[in-house]
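Illustration 12: Meteorin-like protein.
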Amino acid sequence: MIYVTCKPCSDQEVLMAVCTSDFAGSGIFREVMPGTNQHLVVVVTLHRLFHQKSGLFVWGGARGRVWSGRVNVPAPCIVHPGEHEYLLIGSVHFGEAWLSCAPRYKDFLRMYVEAVNAGTNPCHIDTN
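Figure caption equivalent — predicted structure in token form:
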């Protein structure tokens, strides 16, 4: 059984997770599907994929030039399909994606630019 908590990530946790997580990308939650008592399965569309392991997200699909896939989200987390663009960060367990952090993408861009300007960002990613 995989146990992932639903907690806000600090700016430093987000910046480090972008560098070290199994996947990181920006996109939107499309559809929430039933999972188990411990998690939901969420269909996502990614406009940017910074990195991934195991080919979790596929290019193209019904929506054209985007990445798409599914992530498991802890049941206590509130997911609002289609409302905002998020930075989706997580890990892979037994071939399945598990979401760990999902700040709004605009908030991530702010913290990333601040870290770059301060020289404290742990790695470089192309945000353009």
